[in-house]
Design brief:
- By secondary structure, the protein is α+β, with helices and mostly antiparallel strands.
- The chain is 39% helix and 18% strand.
- The chain contains 32 helices and 25 strands.
- Strand 11 and strand 12 form a beta hairpin.
- Helix 1 crosses helix 4, helix 10 packs across helix 11 and helix 27 crosses helix 31.
- It is globular.
Length: 950
């Protein structure tokens, strides 16, 4: 579990809470035993919960939150890659995949289908120390979720087959290729782990595992893994949201109570490591910007000095006021630099990194010396109290913001129970944080970092090993691979519930449908015409403000693409009265944020704050918005960072295929330009360009303001007076260009030499955004073809053919243009058959349409999704911005629901025939052109080489 202090988003304030003794517990179902109850009894905030344990050892935690008609269910098993045996890496993650392949009473792919049909979302994740499975659904679907989760806990193995095993093994390989091997710097974590830990240490391999290990094992190995670790006594079931506690406990006992206990599971011993000398390694990668990564072994998660180490990471490399940023990033010596403390149950590591500029300026020997000098200076410089106060302010605010999501609260309770057997550990964590002193931080620096052995990994462009920080002096030992002994059927001690008092084959049906509560809105205009749309939110004492200015990419001059983004970045630098460091320090201490981000039609000024700090935060927003310093040295640095950001992006297959899509569909129009500019356009920009863009487009005319929070409209009017008096240029206008005519279908091949995967897109022009018109109907038509996990395209390419980690499609649009996209990242050797299968699915769907079952599935799934859509202030703010941006009616959500419930099968089939004919699509492929070209030519379509503008 990564434990950067800045990621305490899910934490809550420690404070007074009461623990109910057992004698006060309510009457419980047989087999359910009360452990404790924690409630909020003061002005401070906690996550209230009740904790129980079943006879079979399953721990159950319930949290009631009736603010929205949703529930979140999390089942966490205390097993991750750290529990794997030598030579069997990747098992925990592999098994996560198998848990979605059906169980005795749940058919193949039905788990995803049933949750999607219920209007919910679901997933699973695996790290070194745990695996969790979770669903968020409308509250009337809770019993069904418990039935599903219990069936795979108690009845999985009878549904596991060799075929499913082979498909998911191939899927995991695709995931490894996509997330590690075909990604810039993707192999860094694996190389660091191999060098930092001995081969016998389970952190020496990554949760994704090694392909050789996956190839070595068989389905019985996987079954044995389940039987060892997936017992109820090694699991925590956490349920939060709009629940009835007594009813929920009865369901938990019914569905989980008879599952047999598994083998005894002890907590693993802590295993931090020590190095005897510096270890230097070099990794060659298909990159242009060299990266230095330094790693020091420290302690373990929950150690007495854990919080001090997190603070140390912040001081070294946690933002603009860190010593690395000040010495190396702000001075332009590196593109980026930072530090973080990565903590696991067994061991933790302090990481310090720096990314050099492209070209010879990025030599890592020089950067290594610079970083070492900065780190050494900490001994003389020391740590000051203000640095710690900033972090404590952020932790306080993040704690409260973490209460806005039931998912976040449930995840936090589950993690604390899994690793500490104490869901209420929160107070200890935050007390440790508050009690950290400068002396504590200096002490851990001396103990773990100063003059201590470390791993130094240099990631350099292919063939440029001379750019490494130092000559490699360490090679990890060969992996220890015991002889594989097949597990025989008679060695598997299978266990299933035998005498349940109900018919488990009957799936529980939901109770009465829930109704999504679209927030009540208020409107007014400021004196200068700025439109304000808001909604009150008092579940947490927070306020979120989003000011949208008509300063988007749509208004950039030709040849100045990227100017909107560069201008927004300059607004985060020095003001005329304060340095950016001073402003960041004030914001951190308040626990607030003020950010600027550019989009197609506007630049969004976002503010998040505790209500008690709203006035102070708005004052900082006012200073940044109205008094930018626009210093030349800031501009030079920000521009160089933008250029290096482009260099990085242009290495990514996802950027290459996106830009190729823009050029193929939109040509030389504004929509064909790179969203973040080109190297030439950004290089040509001057500070005068930024000032001119700011003066013309940062204007209140045409501006819109969304507000969500614990604040009254009358109060807000006074607090926004600084905006009401703002005068500026007229609202800008634009003329929609004539888009290129749809050309004959062709294949556009973007070369990425040696790529282990191919990124494939089928694309065509679509429709502009229309919340209740044909564009929305088209999304409904696409749902079964490519719009969910159980869609035809994903089930074909992923679950049947094992070509990809995931495939799908979508329709998107802005005010003027739209596109239809179908996508997959596939193994390079199956690029041609994958394209054929995608085209086949489109042809079948456009000619034959959808089935009655698919129509019913779409109605249920889409119709119930709204219950999950407006939970957090951020969700609500997005809704408000959408209404203002597209001038939607307040009840457009109800209108969409009515369309979903009434649209006919014939209408959907008409849309499919009109929009999903594969003969109307261009095919874009990013991959190794040398090997792909002969294959693609067999499709009897023109093949055009394409190098996206950079």
């Amino acid at each position: 579990m990564q434990k950067r202090i800045l990621s305490l988003v899910l934490l809550v304030l420690s404070g007074c809470s009461s623990q109910t003794p057992p004698e006060q517990a309510q009457s419980l179902p047989d087999g359910v035993h009360f452990v404790e109850s924690v409630s909020d009894t003061s002005a401070e905030v906690v996550i209230p919960y009740s904790k129980y344990v079943l006879d079979n050892g399953l721990t159950v935690i319930l949290h009631e939150d009736n603010s929205d008609p949703i529930v979140h269910v999390d089942v966490t098993y205390h097993v991750g890659s750290a529990r794997e045996q030598l030579g069997k890496s990747g098992f925990a993650h592999f098994f996560e995949h198998m848990m979605f392949q059906g169980s005795k009473h749940v058919g193949d792919q039905e788990h995803f289908r049933l949750i999607t049909e219920a209007g919910g979302t679901m997933n699973g994740t695996t790290n070194r120390d745990r695996t969790n499975y979770f669903e968020t659904v409308p509250s009337n679907q809770l019993e069904k979720v418990l039935w599903l989760e219990s069936d795979r806990m108690g009845f999985l193995l009878s549904a596991v087959s060799q075929h499913k095993f082979e498909i998911q093994r191939a899927t995991v390989k695709n995931e490894r290729a996509q997330r590690y091997e075909n990604r810039p710097y993707g192999m860094v974590s694996e190389r660091i782990g191999e060098a930092l830990f001995p081969r016998t240490h389970p952190y020496s391999w990554q949760p994704i595992g090694y392909v050789d290990d996956l190839d070595r094992v068989d389905v019985n190995d996987l079954k044995a893994f389940f039987l060892r670790w997936y017992g109820p006594n090694n699991a925590t079931l956490t349920i939060g949201g709009d629940i009835d506690k007594a009813e929920t406990l009865a369901w938990v006992q019914k569905y989980f109570g008879d599952i047999p206990r598994g083998p005894k599971v002890d907590n693993p011993p802590k295993a931090p490591v020590k190095l005897d000398a510096d270890r230097y390694l070099t990794l060659e990668d298909n990159i242009q910007q060299p990266m230095l990564m330094m790693a020091w072994p420290t302690s373990y998660n929950g150690a007495p000095d854990d919080a001090s180490l997190d603070m140390l990471a912040k001081v070294i490399g946690g933002g603009k006021n860190s010593i690395l940023y000040q010495a190396l990033v702000k001075t332009g010596k590196v593109v980026d630099a930072g530090a973080y403390h990565d903590c696991g149950e067994l061991a933790c590591t302090m990481y310090v990194y720096a990314i050099g500029q492209s070209g010879d300026q990025g030599r890592l020997d020089r950067i290594y010396d610079e970083v070492s000098t900065v780190l050494s200076s900490l001994a003389q410089r020391g740590v000051n109290q203000q640095e710690l106060d900033e972090m404590k302010g952020m932790a306080e605010a993040s704690a409260i913001f973490g209460l806005q999501s039931v998912h976040g609260k449930v995840a936090q309770l589950a993690a604390y129970q899994t690793f500490y057997s104490d869901p209420n550990r929160l107070g200890t964590e935050l007390s440790n944080l508050r009690n950290v002193t400068p002396a504590d931080v200096e002490a851990v620096y001396r103990r773990y970092v100063e003059s201590q052995p470390k791993v130094v990994l240099s990631t350099v462009p292919n063939g440029r090993t001379e750019m490494a920080a130092a000559k490699a002096n360490y090679r990890p030992a060969d992996r220890l691979i015991p002889e594989h002994k097949s597990v025989q059927d008679n060695e598997l001690n299978l266990r299933e519930p035998q005498h349940e008092g109900f018919d488990r084959s009957v799936m529980p049906q939901p109770s009465e449908p829930v109704t999504a509560q679209v927030p009540e809105l208020y409107r007014f205009k400021l004196a200068n015409g700025i439109e304000v749309l808001g909604t009150q939110y008092d579940e947490t004492p927070t306020v979120e403000v989003q000011l949208v200015l008509p300063a988007g990419r749509r208004y950039e001059p030709v040849g100045k693409e990227g100017l909107a983004e560069l201008t927004a970045a300059m607004l985060a630098e020095d003001s005329q009265r304060h340095s950016s460091e001073d402003l960041v320090s004030r914001l951190d201490t308040l626990g607030s944020t003020v950010t600027f981000s550019s989009g197609m039609y506007g630049t969004v000024v976002s503010v998040t704050t505790l209500k008690k700090h709203l006035n102070e935060t708005l004052a900082i927003m006012q200073e940044r918005l109205f008094e930018p310093a626009f210093n030349e040295e800031d501009f030079t640095r920000v521009k160089q960072q933008a250029l290096e950001g482009l260099v990085y992006d242009h290495q990514r297959p996802s950027w290459l295929v996106s830009q190729a899509t823009r050029e193929v569909l939109y040509g030389n129009t504004v929509f064909g330009r790179p969203s973040d500019g080109t190297l030439a356009s950004v290089q040509s920009m001057t500070l005068a360009d930024v000032k001119a863009f700011y003066q013309r487009f940062y204007t209140p005319n045409g501006a819109q303001l969304a507000v969500v929070g614990d604040v009254q409209p009358a109060e807000l009017t006074s607090q926004l007076s600084f905006l009401a008096s703002w005068q500026g240029a007229p609202a800008p206008t634009y003329v929609t260009p004539v888009l290129p005519a749809q050309s004959e279908p062709a294949i556009w091949l973007v070369d990425k030499p040696g790529a282990p995967q191919s990124t494939v897109r089928l694309v065509r022009n679509g429709l502009p955004y229309d919340a209740t018109g044909e564009q929305f109907e088209l999304q409904l038509a696409n749902f079964n073809l490519a719009g969910n996990f159980n869609s035809r395209i994903n089930l074909n390419l992923r679950e049947d053919k094992a070509y990809t980690y995931g495939a799908g499609g979508y329709q998107s649009g802005n005010k003027e243009a739209g596109l239809s996209v179908f996508y997959a990242e596939v193994r390079a050797d199956v690029t041609l058959p994958a394209i054929k299968e995608m085209m086949k699915e489109l042809a079948n769907y456009s000619s034959s349409g959808l089935t009655d079952d698919e129509l019913a599935f779409m109605r249920l799934a889409v119709g119930q999704q709204e219950a999950l859509s407006y939970e957090t202030p951020s969700d609500k703010a997005d809704l408000l911005r959408q209404i203002m941006t597209y001038q939607l009616e307040d009840d457009f959500v109800s209108q969409r629901n009515a369309i979903t419930a009434s649209i006919s099968k014939n209408r959907l089939n008409e849309l499919a025939a009109k929009w999903f004919d594969p003969k109307d699509y261009q095919i874009i492929v990013v991959g190794d052109a040398k090997s792909l070209l002969p294959q693609l030519k067999t499709l009897n379509m023109p093949v055009h080489p394409l190098k996206p503008v950079q």
